[in-house]
Amino acid sequence: MIERPVDPGEVDLSTEICGVHLPNPTILASGILGLSAEVLARIARAGAGAVVTKSCSLRPRVGHASPIVVDYGPGLINAVGLANPGVEAMAEEIRRARKLLAPMGVPIIASIFANSVYDFGTTARYISEAEPDLIEANISCPNVEEEFGQIFSSTPYVAAQVTRRVKAATKIPVIIKLSPNVPEIDEVAKAVVAAGADAISAVNTVGPGMLVDVETAMPILSNRVGGLSGPAIRPIAVRCVYEICAAVSVPVIGIGGIMTGRDAAEMITVGATAVGIGTGVYKRGLNVFSLVCQELREIMARLGIARLDALRGRALQQRARRLQPA
Amino acid sequence: MLPVTSHIVRVTQETRTVKTFVLDAAVQAEPGQFLMVWLPGVGEKPISIMEPNPLSLTVARVGPFSAALHTRKPGDLVAWRGPFGRPFALRGRKILLVAGGYGSAPLYFLAVRACQAGLQTLVAIGARSADELVLVERFRELGCATIIATDRGDLGHKGFVTEAILDILPECDCVYACGPEPMLVAIAQLCWQAGVPAQVSVERYMKCGFGLCGQCALDDKLVCQDGPVFDIEELRHSEDFGRYTRNATGRRVPL
Fold it and tell me: Is A293 marked active-site?
């Protein structure tokens, strides 16, 4: 049903995640650039509605040797290896970033990871001292499996354990970031929500995948395998967010191959409250946030939709209608 | 873009610790740009382009990667991606190039372009001692006037290259520098005082090379993408330039 078209200028893109206001739904996804307070502020100035830091752990990590990321055409493959300066240094960056971001009204989301359920709690407690607006627990990085064994989001049971531990360690709302590389992502989503997750972000990279140099017969990534991102994985991300939003009612940040306003509209149509952009920064530059917002405004205006609430979950409503008996 | 694999065709020993590798490849590049050079099984590092055709890289032995590269012989394979980064921009008629140590490499490429464009090109080269000066003869073959400075004083001015250029600097339309960061800071200060424009090539720890990992952040700039060449006006109010860098974990640490 198309409603009366509205003027793009009348479209309100503001949204909310767990009581935190975002001026627009485009979020810098974790792992891209989010190391320095000044760079995070520049991304906010470029139009991002929120920023997520690089994932940090209790102790500093050098990560994998380069090459850590390769553009293979339809997307990127990366294995950075969770390089980060440690929770203490990251807390300092977050404190500096908050001062720069607050006047712009752009919230900051601290991403954390750990190599045990217990350390997830400790890391959450330390990062909370820097008072980020939200905490994202990255339980789904695929690039350190040899080190950590199976990723935490592989099973609903372990994912729930991490969620409970992080929730017990902080008063700040907690987002759990899920992996698409599981048979039933909706079951993992239900488990983390039952364990107290305030929101979900989905998805982390798809894979692992591998690229090999033909001349030298060597894998190109130093880690040999890495996670896929970008346009190639968008349909997988859309399906995952659709299944999650059909299963749980917490806010979902849809991530995976979003390059344009149309892609963002698609993700919101399957139920996302906001969208994460990572590879899009590489493809379109830092302006990607304002470009996506402008394109999204035009699409919503054409549909006669003035607020994100009215766009959100339209695909799920269609499904519900179809499922009703005639 | 996937890495391109090329063969080494010639290796020249420039100094005790610096070698030039000529590859059977050519790139469309501008002076100041760099490649991510990959040695399978060893790693990948940013290396500035000394000549685009044939592709030539002048590399100092400073760590495990460059040490491995230095063992490579003609016929061996080297892979690379790029070019990446913002290049130098030529301006004016009389320019001064200031190289410290292996900073000569990208400035040689710039000197070639400047001479082709008919600019009067002066080159000041500094090193610890005479046997560590890099590419001096190559600059002279281009017809550039050279100013030499060595810390030890065994050739040219005894002391910093920044002292050897004091007289000539105010006469120049633009100064281009590549070398250790304290030298770049000194040149920026001289140029601010003299009101001479300058562009400096800044080095930071890079992991991806094209604006994704954030490892090379200098204030709110990414050295791999917004640099490595910066106009000194962009650095005038910098908190990081000459003071802070980021280590392999990304932690901001004093330079």
Answer: no
